[in-house]
């Protein structure tokens, strides 16, 4: 089986779980015997582009001519079984779907965000969930609110791109929805249910979980949508030391909140940015991982990392978090989901502290059954195999 994996990598200065997932998926497919042909571009290429190429950048989300030419040569030479698209912006463009179909190659797309509808891709604006463009033919609210890169001009270009490529997206042969929430988003967008497969990402097995530690661990970008402010508000409603330690790792615009909390209370520690070894060590010291997202977070990888390490998760009831912790699983959830407000989070913190030990083994088992690389790679190969009837005309 021969698969083209197409992805526009996000800038190195903008930490991206999506880049990490694509790299891991390529490695997992290769290990499973699939011949992977990477078709990758990086936004880090933009500053070094010649002036002529830079002049075309504003229209590249709609149509990127160089990418189409290079992809056409690749498809002609290698005749792959499918093209698997991740992020097309800005250097690939959704037009790669049309290019693949023109060469008789079916297309799979993993949907990592809400950018079929939302110019920013996150359904979040000015500190709150926003779906003003949902159901609209053209995203005027995105332009008015400068939702894409804080620019009315760039927002207009992205809104135009989404309008132009509505037929493109509806021609994709299979969509991989990372959670049931994304599957619902796609159906509401008009994608038939039989073109949608729910398949989460997998992460490498960290090995046998360490004995349960104590307290809570928050790991993520320190930005408003990740909910650090809500967590700290909830934490302050309990006496210092009553819940055990709270460890915070990550960086971003709300770093000052983490630093202030650590200076104010003995039970809060701010660790800054951690490498993989640091994350694993801190996970081992903790009992519960917190995912306090205030937006419809598609698939926060930290939740899967927690379960792989045998740590239950306390999360908000938004986006993919309920799916990840098995809130609708008849065998039982491996964590707790609460509304995204400080009072609900504050009430849940002592419940999670008391119940962590009972959910440690079930959390690891859910990882092994649903998110282990062997499981998700087999499901992905099954998706590819189901496409051999060819692309739609």
Describe this entry's structure for a reader.
The protein is globular and about 65 Å long. It has 393 residues and is an alpha/beta fold. The strands form three sheets. Strands 2-1-3-4-7-8 form a six-stranded parallel sheet, with helices on both faces. A six-stranded parallel sheet has the order 11-10-9-12-13-14. It is built from 15 helices and 14 strands.
Task: Give me the count of strands.
Answer: 14
Helix-residue proportion: 25-40%
* Shape field: globular
Q: Cα-atom Rg, whole angstroms? A: 21 Å
Report the sheet-strand fraction.
Answer: 15-25%
Low-confidence stretches: none
Structural class: alpha/beta
> Helical region count?
15
Order of helices and strands: EHEHHEHEEEHHHEHEEHEHEHEHEHEHH
How far is the N terminus from the C terminus?
Answer: 23 Å
Mean pLDDT: 94
- Largest sheet composition: 6 strands, parallel
Q: Order of strands side by side in the largest beta sheet?
A: 2-1-3-4-7-8
């Amino acid at each position: 089986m021969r698969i083209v994996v197409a992805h526009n990598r996000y800038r190195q200065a903008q930490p991206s779980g999506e880049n990490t997932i694509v790299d891991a998926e390529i490695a997992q497919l290769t290990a499973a015997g699939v011949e992977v042909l990477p078709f990758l571009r990086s936004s880090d290429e933009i500053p070094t582009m010649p002036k002529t190429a830079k002049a075309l950048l504003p229209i590249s989300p709609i149509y990127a001519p160089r990418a189409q030419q290079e992809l056409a040569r690749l498809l002609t030479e290698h005749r792959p079984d499918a093209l698997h698209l991740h992020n097309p912006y800005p250097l690939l463009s959704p037009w790669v779907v049309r290019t693949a179909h023109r060469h008789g190659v079916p297309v799979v797309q993993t949907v990592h965000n809400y950018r079929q509808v939302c110019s920013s891709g996150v359904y979040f604006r000015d500190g709150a969930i926003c779906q003003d463009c949902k159901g609209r033919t053209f995203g005027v609210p995105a332009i008015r609110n400068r939702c894409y890169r804080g620019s009315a001009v760039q927002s207009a270009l992205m809104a135009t791109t989404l309008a132009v490529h509505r037929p493109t997206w509806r021609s994709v042969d299979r969509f991989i929805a990372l959670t049931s929430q994304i599957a619902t988003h796609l159906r509401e967008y008009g994608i038939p249910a039989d073109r949608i497969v729910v398949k989460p990402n997998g992460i490498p097995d960290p090995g046998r979980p360490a004995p349960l530690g104590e307290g809570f661990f928050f790991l993520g970008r320190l930005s408003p949508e990740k909910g650090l402010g809500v967590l700290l508000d909830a934490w302050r409603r309990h006496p210092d030391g009553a819940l055990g330690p709270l460890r915070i790792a990550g960086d971003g615009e709300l770093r000052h909140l983490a630093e202030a909390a650590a200076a104010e209370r003995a039970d809060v520690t701010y660790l800054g940015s951690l490498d993989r070894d640091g994350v694993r060590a801190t996970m081992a010291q903790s009992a519960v991982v917190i995912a306090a997202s205030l937006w419809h977070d598609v698939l926060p990888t930290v939740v899967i990392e927690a379960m792989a390490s045998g740590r239950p998760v306390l999360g908000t009831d938004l986006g993919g978090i309920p799916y990840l912790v098995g809130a609708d699983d008849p065998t039982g959830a491996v964590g707790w989901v609460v509304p995204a407000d400080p009072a609900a989070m504050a009430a849940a913190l002592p419940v999670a502290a008391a119940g962590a030990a009972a959910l440690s083994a079930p959390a690891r088992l859910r990882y092994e059954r649903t998110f282990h690389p062997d499981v998700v790679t087999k499901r992905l190969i099954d998706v590819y195999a189901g496409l051999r009837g060819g692309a739609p005309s």
